[in-house]
Task: inverse folding
């Protein structure tokens, strides 16, 4: 009963914040220091990927955005295996720049999974389940969705990889992940 009451109060608080001050849940998560961001650009590449493993305690609610200079496609993959020590570490940023809180995301550049506020770029990942496959047909257009229709609530203790591939040789590619953790 206490959990239901707490959820009810939280919903009321969020509604009040939105109605009175124009603050969305996502905006509120930034103020709580629970919102994170990473963006990776390759100026001339045939593919670009980001890989990580979710932790065991916090749910990630993620939006994936991407862009390319030419025709391309992106795959959202779940459940693969990241080859230890592969890829390049990239720093995750807390969207509340006054906070020292770090993400619970894990990477295994050292050979074992650690939460060091990093994601792996271009790591070797065995095939997992393809959750989504989006084709991008035009020049320099981004695949950016709205939170309500594009958000993914990721499973705990699971590997995720986002692979953007140019269908037109080496071109500029960009992947951006935004998420909050609760």
Result:
């Amino acid at each position: 009963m206490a959990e239901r009451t707490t959820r009810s109060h939280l919903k009321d608080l969020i509604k009040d914040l939105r109605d009175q001050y124009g603050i969305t849940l996502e905006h509120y998560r930034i103020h709580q220091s629970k919102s994170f961001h990473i963006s990776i650009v390759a100026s001339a590449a045939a593919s670009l990927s980001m890989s990580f493993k979710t932790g065991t305690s916090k749910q990630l609610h993620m939006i994936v955005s991407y862009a390319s200079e030419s025709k391309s496609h992106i795959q959202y993959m779940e459940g693969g295996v990241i080859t230890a020590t592969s890829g390049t570490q990239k720093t995750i940023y807390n969207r509340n720049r006054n906070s020292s809180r770090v993400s619970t995301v894990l990477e295994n550049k050292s050979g074992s999974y650690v939460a060091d506020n990093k994601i792996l770029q271009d790591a070797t990942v065995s095939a997992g389940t393809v959750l989504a496959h989006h084709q991008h047909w035009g020049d320099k257009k981004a695949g950016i969705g709205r939170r309500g229709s594009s958000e993914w609530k990721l499973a705990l203790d699971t590997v995720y990889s986002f692979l953007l591939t140019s269908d037109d040789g080496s071109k500029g590619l960009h992947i951006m992940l935004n998420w909050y953790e609760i």
Observations:
- The chain is about 15% helix and 40% strand.
- The helical segments are 2-21, 25-31, 147-150.
